[in-house]
Design a protein that fits this description.
Helix content: 25-40%
Distance between the termini: 46 Å
Oligomer: single chain
Shape: globular
Strand order of the largest sheet: 2-5-4-3-1-6
CATH architecture of the largest domain: Roll
Structural class: alpha+beta
Order of helices and strands: EHEHHEEEHEHHHEEEEEEHEHE
Number of helices: 9
CATH topology of the largest domain: ph1033 like fold
Largest sheet: 6 strands, mixed
CATH class of the largest domain: Alpha Beta
């Protein structure tokens, strides 16, 4: 199955046109450092090695900054597969799109030296996107997946055939992904007005929100937040409907990554599961996890004249 990705080519897409003309996508994050010896063994091995390299080269940065940078670097250089479709935003609110055709290439001395070859095919405007896709594509993360919108993107790019016949379960799963993504986007945009926003800020880097879909070696976290006193990191996992006890193991994996890779001395990690409802199984599971809590969300619908 074709996956779809955003890969930003410099702040505001300032390098997109240059990269399109040269037939590449590229990222930086660590400058002229050849990462080839660290690729090929998966995300966990890459994080373990490269987080330490990043911190050695950038001693003023935090472990959270290292995890973010190296997570994006791995996604761009190995997580994206040959044949996947990438979108690169331009300053004029259009998106260049094309198909990845090679593995990692190192181009020292060039802008965005960590590169993949791309067969760029064309552009489309942000106005052609559905409001949900446009909202998700507007995230400030450098590298992130848009695969929940695969059907719409297949139609916009004409680079992959949308499924003609799909099982009901597959349709339901895709809709679930989209609804959870919309819930995530809504929470991020309204964070300061929530109960969590009183005590925590979504992680930011250089004044931009970077804690949405924060990368880890077991998959992206929905939201990573930091307490206002900087002593606690909070992992947020969102579910569109009733949560099951399986989500407890999922959030524990993310929290384990935070504890082992991101915590600074004196910091702790907590978790929160947000869903429309719970059941006896998840309540029983949460009685044994003192640092994970459960919160319900409520959707309100109003008509006005």
């Amino acid at each position: 199955m074709t996956d779809y990705w955003i890969v930003r080519q410099g702040r505001g897409g300032m390098h997109t046109e240059e990269m399109v003309q040269s037939g590449y996508l590229g990222v930086d994050f660590i400058g002229d450092y050849d990462i080839r010896s660290h690729l090929g063994n998966g995300s966990r091995a890459f994080h373990t090695a490269m987080n330490n390299v990043f911190l050695r080269l950038n001693p003023d940065k935090s472990k959270v900054a290292a995890g973010l940078a190296m997570g994006n670097l791995w996604a761009a250089c190995e997580g994206i597969k040959v044949g996947d479709v990438v979108l690169a935003p331009k300053p004029d609110r259009t998106y260049a799109f094309g198909t990845v055709t090679s593995g990692y290439e190192y181009s020292p001395g060039q802008i965005l030296p960590h590169r993949r070859r791309v067969d760029w095919k064309g552009t489309f405007g942000r106005d052609a996107m559905s409001p949900e896709l446009a909202n998700s594509a507007g995230s400030l993360m450098t590298v992130f997946s848009l695969s929940p919108y695969a059907t719409e993107l297949a139609q916009l790019t004409h680079l992959a055939e949308p499924a003609v016949v799909a099982l009901a379960s597959e349709v339901e799963e895709q809709l679930a992904f989209q609804m959870e993504k919309q819930l995530e986007d809504f929470l991020v945009h309204n964070w300061r007005n929530t109960e969590l926003g009183r005590d925590y800020d979504i992680y930011e880097e250089d004044g931009e929100v970077k804690g949405q879909q924060y990368p880890s070696d077991t998959g992206p976290m929905d939201i990573l937040a930091v307490s206002k006193d900087r002593k606690r990191l909070l992992v947020v996992e969102l579910k569109r409907e009733r949560a099951s006890d399986a989500v407890v193991g999922q959030i524990q994996r993310y929290m384990g990554y935070v504890q082992e890779e991101l915590l600074e001395p004196g910091q702790t990690v907590e978790g929160v599961i947000i869903a429309r409802g719970d059941d006896l199984r998840i309540r029983r599971a949460l009685t044994m996890t003192r640092n994970i809590r459960f919160m319900k969300y409520r959707v309100e619908f109003h008509l006005e004249t």
